[in-house]
Amino acid sequence: MQLLKEEGEENMKSQNNTKVNGIHRAHTWEIGLYALNNTSTNLYAMLMGYVSYYVSGLMGVAAVLVGTLLTVMRVWDGVTDPVIGFVVDKTNGRFGKNRPFIVIGNVIMIITTYILYHFGHKLPDNYGLRLGFFVLIYAVYIIGYTCQCVVTKSAQSCMTNDPEQRPTFAVFDAAYGGLMFAGTGMLVSKYLVPKYTVDGISGFRNPAMFHEFWLIFAGLSLLLAALSIVGLWRKDRPQYYGLGVPQQIRIRDYWEILKHNRAIQMLVVAASTDKLFQNIMTNSIVLVIVFGIICGDYGSYGTMSMLIIVPQILLCGFGIRKIAAKMGQRKALWTGSIGAIICASCMALLFIFGNPKDFGFSRITFFTVALCTLWILEKACSGMAGTLVIPMTADCADYETYRSGKYVPGLMGTLFSFVDKLISSLGTTIVALELAAVGFAKVQPDQTTPLTPGLFWVGIISFCLVPIIGWLCNLVAMKFYPLTKEKMAEIQDRIAEIKAASFDN
Known about the structure:
77% of the residues lie in helices and 0% in strands. The chain is mainly alpha-helical. Helix 4 runs parallel beside helix 7 (99-119) and helix 8 (127-154) packs antiparallel against helix 18 (409-424). It starts with a helix and ends with a helix.
């Protein structure tokens, strides 16, 4: 393959060659391992995606209050981002700029999630005590999540500055994300919930289920974090940071940067709105409603997730390589958003006019085939749009270096995360309010809950129609996003000239 041939020659170049073309590349395997950092953090995001079941079902906190608390804590999550980002931008130690934060973040998340899922339900039956415990532990967990998560964006610019290679991260990330999402669906719906559902009481109300859930995901996250450090090891060095020399970044520099960097402004708009409505679509409760209650076969959701994962990954990877690498990441995000809108609209029509009770794999039905096909196409398109925003933050960082001479990947990544988290945090609250409106203010529906018209429309609106709003916002934001493929080539040439002048002097 051409990509592999090119990368087989990378880094054998002399310093002089680097000065000529300004391009430094990474080996494909390095990008593949580094991309595991995002998967490592997302495993905890998936684990904590079920925390509302634990806190409401086992700790006795009202469901609506849990949703509100999770939104408030996501605001705290956003507040920690600029602080951690500033620390990353100031860090230039012997262990690199990024690697220490992977270690610190993962250790914090291991400890806090263990405490939450193993001791929360054992506390004295005091509402205030249990509520305070949850808020405190979750707040500390968020600090760890931010520490590790910021590296996913920050290290993009030092891994590679080749516009044609940067989408490679999105290919790996989409593949890992698809496997993780499908694997989680299979694990929860086909293994954990049935295993721990006893005497008609859902496994979601069994603390033993959450122990095993934590054990699997914490161990896997730790392994992936270690592998990502290996992938990042060679490139996490000052010569790959911006202009190749350490910089003094001041807090007051941030406002000027944010005010004039149109690229990061538009990327934040696209990513945060997309993320908000994607979070609603993939909310654990929404998935239980759609597949466990509307379709009546929650276990088949896990089966479907595993069956479609390979074609989903192949289509997503093909789209990224053919569109992003050849025509630019902006064009690929635009195309993916349009495709996702079409597929989600068709899924809504399928649920409304079809027979969801035909869903399942004991026999092949039109509904099952149609839903699987549309799901494959929708996840491939939305995956292309959603994963590309991460390497696009590196483009925004390079644009800032080109524009002002400031190398601030931590700022780019944490600004992105700050707004993303503030807006996407509303997803849990929106779902909770939807459920409260149809009679589920204190308890949450599970796979044993009878279907009502209210639950049907909550499921269809959240699963099919709401995400379309996010993709429409993508289209508007990309209309004003300035970093085309041609512009990025100009940017890298200019940065190379500045580096060359610096080395010559």
